[in-house]
TrEMBL record:
Keyword Lipoprotein included in the entry's annotation: yes
Membrane-spanning segments: none
Tree of life domain: Bacteria
Location of region: Disordered: 23-47
Residues making up the signal peptide according to the UniProt record: 1-20
Keyword Signal attributed: yes
Gene Ontology CC: outer membrane
Keywords, alphabetical: Lipoprotein, Signal
Organism: Aquisalimonas asiatica
UniProt lineage: Bacteria, Pseudomonadati, Pseudomonadota, Gammaproteobacteria, Chromatiales
Name of the protein in question: Outer membrane lipoprotein
Pfam families noted in UniProt: Slp
Amino acid sequence: MVRIALLGLACLGLLLTACSTTRDSIPDPGRGAPTISDVRASPDRHQGETIRWGGSIAGVENRQDVTLVEVVGRPLDRSGRPRSGDSSEGRFLAVIDGFLDPAVYEEGRRITVSGTVDGDVTRAVGEHDYRYVQVRATGHHLWPEPRPDPYAHDPRYYPGPYYGPRYGPWYDPWYDPWYPHRRGFR
């Protein structure tokens, strides 16, 4: 009996391990973690704090040993995915070890980054000097591109005016006992 219980616990542990994904490696710092605007207001106070931020990629710059990813910050949903929309918390600069291909990490793709606050850096956005929060990344997740709905604008898949549970192209009211003209006969 004890062996069966231990075997069940071992199987449960294996199942939970197998269900983990790459984004699970991006820890959530929890409540009270600083936002981008908090760190921009006082970067020295938040130096070394753990964060998890995300947003849309605005640019990628490969250097000798690291890649700088410029991100327009967006709020994250419960799964850590950046939300779409026009709201922005500001920009931050993620410093990621190694080479990231700019063709894959292209402008507009969504990314979630975890790491520690590493101060601030002033860089130009157009002709404007902008103060970025710099994050030393310990993990990141590039979200897959949304796939378009193939049936969204195809007129062949329009359900028609008689769409419903009892109507369709093969509906024959003569054999339908609930058709209004046939109710009295059955």
